[in-house]
Specification:
The protein is of the alpha+beta class. The chain has four helices and eight strands; from the N terminus they run E-E-H-E-E-E-H-H-H-E-E-E. The chain has a six-stranded antiparallel β-sheet with strand order 1-2-8-7-6-5. Strands 3-4 form a two-stranded antiparallel ribbon.
Length: about 170
Amino acid sequence: MQKALTYLDQTFINFREFPFGDHAYRWVDIKRFGVSHPDVGDACLLTELIGHEQFRDDYAGGGVEVDGLRHGPYWLRNVTPTTYGHVDEMTASALLRDWAAQFGPLPAALSAQLDHDVHPLITGATDRYRLADLGHEAFHDWGRVHSDFHELVLVDRPAKVLSLLVAADD
């Protein structure tokens, strides 16, 4: 079978670019993939996403490593389709809103950008998955660099797009 996912683009929202007291080196990274076979099940999409080179990103400044062994704070081998749990729209939205506002109110421009680039992905998704906290034993050799690491996979079947959304700090 042909691959179901094709990498489209990336959006990076760096909290440091907005004037406020404690940005805590936080950011949101969104990688979007076209879904060429909309009839493929979510488990197959998750499997293909995990196998995609764009998934091999430590999210600590190194970028994508085509032959990399890390994903975020975890060894890639510890991330499987079963480590993702289905979440509803309200849970996914609350997770990101609570994380973003954990140190106080956000600047209006940052809130506007999150409302424009992030929240429509959650509300428009037909399925939403959250990567579970895999625990310290799944961390790679320097995986503790992130205090917070939240990952959502958002599948929008009508738009034929899968979005990998990571909200974290470094």
